[in-house]
Amino acid sequence: MTPPIRRLVLDVLKPSDPDILEVTAVVADCSAVDSVNAVLVETDREVQTLKMTVAGGDLDAEEIEATIQDAGGSVHSIDQVICGDRVVEQSPTPQDR
Length: 97
Prior knowledge:
Elements lengths: L4 E11 L4 H9 L4 E11 L3 E10 L4 H10 L3 E10 L14
């Protein structure tokens, strides 16, 4: 049995329309999603880059990516994944300094 995905941090590229509110809301409507945090990282004339953190009980990464694509965006990368029975935060290491 595959452990549940609890958190995904995604690098998302989307057109300026729909706005960040709409894209965040449609992702929040995906199954098992408890909350979504979307931060505007960069904006250009026609496109925006978002850092999107999605949290929930057993996230479906494919459903979330398809939802973003249906809104006109694309997932450039998955920058963090947390799986298992609980969320484990990163611990600082000497390489982080």
